[in-house]
Hints:
about 40% helix; 7-stranded mixed β-sheet; two-stranded parallel ribbon; single chain; Spore Coat Polysaccharide Biosynthesis Protein SpsA, Chain A
Amino acid sequence: MVKSAFIIIPTFNEAANIEEMINQLEKVFSHIAHWKMDILIVDDNSPDGTGQIVKNLQKKFDNLHLLSGEKKGLGAAYTRGMQYTLANYEPDFIMEMDADFQHSPGDIPRFLSKAGRGYQFIIGSRYMPGGDYVNWSFKRKMYSWGANLIARYIAGIYHIDDCTSGFRCISAKFLRSFDLNDLKSNGYAFQMSLLHAATRKHISITQIPIHFHNRKKGDSKLGHSDIGEFFINAFKLRFKRYRWMDNNG
Length: 249
């Protein structure tokens, strides 16, 4: 039985990376059996021509899709992309992935293997045994460690090593079970909010170790507003958890 997966890649000014990323993904797909693989690029009207590069590649790859729109943040892009995919296609799983090679295309078969074994939410973890991050600055480490501590001990996602990972494989059935707009996260806090929703619904979650690399081309999109939204959302999720526990005994 053939399963279907869409890889959603949000982009803003990724002209230096996107063609090579798509080509590498297609090479990986050629070695994957029993899965139909598609790519959806969700481009925030990049002024550097990222969208046009994708349009040109669509002539070569019929499993490559493009969704353009206004720049509102990472979470807004993922919400838009997931809603579009679920409304127009019938995937079994949706994957999240960066365009800048911080996530390795070669790891995708490992995610699909876990999905094939019945897991509904697979996380690429930098912090579990076997995972790591390469050449991070002290500041970068502090941001990441701090965000994970906040997600685990304030938002209440205790049993996950890497709550902020953006490399994931998620059951479409789970994503259809609620309104993604209810997450109310336009930025990087989306990753924490989506994982929190998964833990509340008690779906099967697992992690695989990944090697996370620094981007070689282009600029990071993380801003101060993302950090502020993440912190505020963690407390909102904490209070939501308390209300849910009160309502459910």
